[in-house]
Amino acid sequence: MAMLYSQLVEVYEKLSRHSSKIEKTHILADFLKELAKHGKKEWIYLLRGRVVSDYDTREIGISDKLAVKAIAFSFGIDEKEIFEEYKKVGDLGEIAEHFSTRKKQVSLLKQRLTIERVFNELRKLLEVEGSGSISLKIEIISSLLSSAEQKEAKYLVRTLLGDLRVGVGENILRDAIVEAFFKEDKSAAELVARAYELANDFAQVFEAAKRGKAELEKIEITPGRPVKVMLPVKVTSVAEAFKVCGKPAEIEHKYDGFRVVISKDSRGELKLFTRRLEDVTKQFPDVCKAVEKLVKGKSFILDSEVVGYDKKTKRYKPFEAISQRIKRKYEIKKLVEELPVEVNVFDVLYYNGKSVMKEPFKKRRALLEKIVKSKPLELKLAENIITADERVAERFYRDVLRAGEEGVIFKNLEAPYTPGRRVGNMVKLKPVVKDLDLVIVGAEFGSGKRAGWLTSYILACRHNDKFLEVGKVSSGLKEKEGEGTTYEEMTRLLKPLVKRSDGKFVEVAPKLVVSVTYQNIQKSPAYTSGFALRFPRITMYRPDRNTSDIATLDDIKQAYLAQFKRKKTTR
Ligand code: ATP
Fold first, then answer.
1. Residue 559 CB contacts under 8 Å (≥ 6 apart), including other chains
2. By the 8 A CB rule, do 535 and 518 touch?
3. Cα distance between residue 146 and residue 60, in whole Å
4. Distance from the CA of 254 to the center of ligand 1, in angstroms?
5. For the whole model, what pTM was predicted?
6. I need a labelling partner for 431 at 20 to 30 A (CA). Which of 218, 221, 276, 446 fits?
7. From 253, 254, 408, mutation site for ligand 1 pocket: most ligand atoms within 8 A of C-beta
8. What is the pLDDT of residues 547-571, one digit of tens each?
9. All structural domains of the chain
């Protein structure tokens, strides 16, 4: 029995009616049971508005403009009329739903949309490239839209835009897999979580869960695929760092670069991934060369921090300088020359056909020492000491700061590698700076010299799966090309994310993360978080960060309250 797209649409509708996590989990679990019986495992991606696994960062991401064209074409409506509606409603999905009733009457025997057809056609959209791709895309979309019922049209369009709005995060979907196949079994919940962390692929986890716990246990980390990296918790003193990591602990430099997972599969193919699971192999031919030359092994997965340095002085440059290298897809050779980088390797997760994640850190480090030949300014092991002495640790920390580094990372010598988690197997210690990572949710066009650019940005923090505004920033970016992100560049990045425009103001999909400093935080009814940053300034654009990494409402509250504490102690 073929599964109909309307069944999935029914699930989307129910999900958007219920905001409670428990309800959502039930709804999803029921659907997963059906899918296990009658569907294909990959269709699970559709629940989160995707058609590929999470380790595949390609997105359908049709632009608003193209969606409008396709809606117009499918239902025989003028594009202008759709844009007018869009200004009022702000959701092209609802607009498609509305106009789909105007569809020229087609034969009554018209085929109903199956999930299979929708999935396959959407997958095709990912692959269409090059000249003629726009008309081919419109053709694919229209063939779906003209077969769609009203509600189906709504969710098709939302999926195309990458904005499903039904609130299914990774956690809820994981819980639903547990509920569908293991009821309330706590040990299974842990297994599903672990399997997902290693696979980053819901289809694979769903299929394994369907077959039972033993299959879940078989899921292992795979070279060639990105990995969710282990993250540190924050501490404020050496004593606290030892408390979390135990004594003795390894202490390493905290390099101010960007995280790169280096992966070599059994065929010898090298791949580089960011913390957001993006493949950046093409941008870093120099890193690949250094890995080939200086790391021994048939296959491996290494964790590292890549830092830019000044060609002349050989001193490290701040993250902002190297960030261009992640973003740039052309003139790579020139950039390699201008912005050389050094790879600092600090962990190994997989070696010669076997996962070593469960080995204690001291063994993994020992393995690294054997397989990595350090060559400063190309690729080397992260500088470290192992000590139980707080005075030695303090001295190391001080020296590292004097050398211009950001801080230090303490690591528990006995701990396994825990992907994607901040569980205290490592901690970061650095001087307190007022700096928050926030996401841009809106922007405004500038005037005068800055006309044509989006120059002020509405910032938001995260609260569960909502984004709450905390202020507006217009300083910190550069007007001219050089070191650092320019307003022009930010405008280019924001434009494809625009959801709605209103005069000079645009609302954008929450995607771009920036680090922001500020003078202080005030309570404010003007923003949905209830707080406002005073005198904010963007210190850098963070292409390496996801919205899941940004400051939460709790972080803002804490930073707000900390201001009063500080005042008391300095008085
Ligand atoms: P904050 O969020 O407090 O502004 P941050 O953005 O640097 O600081 P995190 O991202 O949590 O905070 O810090 C951990 C990051 O530090 C890692 O993701 C990694 O990119 C980087 N790092 C630098 N050196 C090391 C090292 N030796 N071991 C592990 N991570 C390191």
1. 434, 436, 521, 551
2. yes
3. 19
4. 6
5. 0.75
6. 276
7. 254
8. 988 999 999 998 888 776 543 322 2
9. 231-429 (3.30.470.30), 435-570 (2.40.50.140)
